[in-house]
Amino acid sequence: xxxxxxxxxxxxxxxxxxxxxxxxxxxxxxxxxxxxxxxxxxxxxxxxxxxxxxxxxxxxxxxxxxxxxxxxxxxxxxxxxxxxxxxxxxxxxxxxxxxxxxxxxxxxxxxxxxxxxxxxxxxxxxxxxxxxxxxxxxxxxxxxxxxxxxxxxxxxxxxxxxxxxxxxxxxxxxxxxxxxxxxxxxxxxxxxxxxxxxxxxxxxxxxxxxxxxxxxxxxxxxxxxxxxxxxxxxxxxxxxxxxxxxxxxxxxxxxxxxxxxxxxxxxxxxxxxxxxxxxxxxxx
Length: 284
What we know:
The chain is of the alpha/beta class and 284 residues long. The chain has helices at residues 69-76, 99-105, 122-128, 138-142, 146-163, 181-193, 211-228, 239-245, 263-267, 270-277; strands at 31-40, 43-53, 58-62, 84-89, 92-93, 107-109, 199-203, 231-235, 248-253, 256-261. The chain is built from ten helices and ten strands. α3 (122-128) packs across α5 (146-163) and α3 (122-128) packs parallel to α6 (181-193). 35% of the residues are buried.
């Protein structure tokens, strides 16, 4: 019996909720979150979080206090394991990775509260970030064999190169804890860069900075992206910084995304205005 010929299936494009810069569209996103969520007991802290970041994008994650922004960072870096959803880093599912493995795979971060080794030198703090890439064996280190000295030479040269981004080479021998607040913030970024990331997460990098320091930070974030050709995702409450350098912005409120778009689109979005300012009563 002859089989009936089936009508060909028509395939149509499915719209994506994710956006990336046009210049990165010919390459897969460095990060893609799909329906990401986490519950703490009966509380849903983040729900249905969908976001993509282009390979050279500077992106912003903003929202009111308690919106879940740092929780998202903790999910991306595996401080927390997601309750549901998928995180793709350079196309690889990170579900089986821990914090160290995710760092080695390409995500580095800074924190709201500075986490430097205050009693170590500036250079030694940067060298700690190089551990993924400069290695020598236990015996080489204990007995100061040639492999140890070669590794130390490479580490020193790389640390000084990274410190030069912020013109901090002259501070290499100073104790990290003795630096002014803004310099400590910059050092934390340098240490994160030392891990050779493809995605740099900055958690409120301008916190505690004065306007001139913030303006300098903006220039340096762009310089980092351009020099290393990496992506940057930042959480920040300073809207002048966010609107000044971010290309794509994602707005979070009560653990859910309420808006995505360019800085101009976000500033004019009624849901974003309401989340930050509260809903006005009629007649006001």
